[in-house]
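Cross-check.
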Amino acid sequence: MHIVQVMANNSSVPYFRWFAEESKKHPGIKLSFVALCKEKPLMLEEMKKIGCDCYWIPFDAEKRKTGMIRTFFKMYSLFKKIKPDVVHTHLFDDSLPGLAAAKLAGVKVRVITKQDTTFHWHYKPAFVRFDRLNNRMATHIHAVADENKKFILEKENAPEEKVFLVRNGFPYDSTTASDERTINTIKDQYGLHGRFVIGTVARLIEWKGHGYIVEAAEQLVKKYPNIKFIFAGTGNASYGEELAAKIKAKGLKEHVVLAGWLERGAMPSFYKCLDLYLHPAVNEPFGFAISEAMMNGVPVAATRTGSNDLVTDKQEGFILKEKNVQDIVDTIGHCIEHPDQLGLVATRGQAHAKQHLDFINMWNGHIELYTKALKK
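Predicted model, tokenized:
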């Protein structure tokens, strides 16, 4: 079984590496990767070292329309040449040209993971028709959580027989591989020693909810001057500039840090620097960092995104209301003033993540989906 995984606009996709490593344990499975990026991503070299075929197709998201047209023809030629059994896309920018190319090339199984569904619904409604087009071109639609599946069925009107639920997962050992030296380096660099540290890991785009955190911080620092917020991640440059200006205008530069990109290997240590992980995203399909934080024993306060759709409020985590600054303020205040409960939530959350969000469950779910689809 030859599976081609396609991803746009990401220089590093950890679960692609995990898939590549796991595939080597299964002789009947061949895994190839296609990256659509402006510059050749380093992750392709990682995949090659593992033994997977990798392809880079230059794609500039700032020139989306012409880029997708060029990408479509290049992927069509590639698929005709390598003749995969399965093409699996993940985001809108790779799905629209990728699924069309795979269909025209005669690829039997075409899977789309709805990692960024809801974005167009909230911010670019005119593009929802293209989300629905992707659903029609796909033979199978991969929902990553219950809320995600519900949205696909109710808002995108996808046929129920096409939609399959397989939760994303993480390998526990590598996800929690922190070290004291890196922890101290991060604390020194960003002035986190002796602070109540609240962190978030997310691309700098509007739907991740950074703006709500800044609004909440303005209120919180007056009552809790010892707290510090740290945002890890890069993304939309203009949105990042807007956030930085907002932080400065509110006099929060000593309390809110834009840390930018952190190396993947440093992430477990970053989580260990946090007293609370905060993720107020709006209708996000999954939220990988939520699960990573939970696996690292960090208590999580997040909106009901896919990765915590099985969480009970105030048991394995704290569930936030969407677009609600006051709820963020109240929840953080509660966490600061009830440290014993915060510790219990962290312990329960870690156990929950290990049980429900293990990478092997994700791998098995994908392979079962492909296998059944190819037998039809």
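The two ends are 14 Å apart (CA to CA). The chain has a mean pLDDT of 93. Passed to J.P. for a second look.
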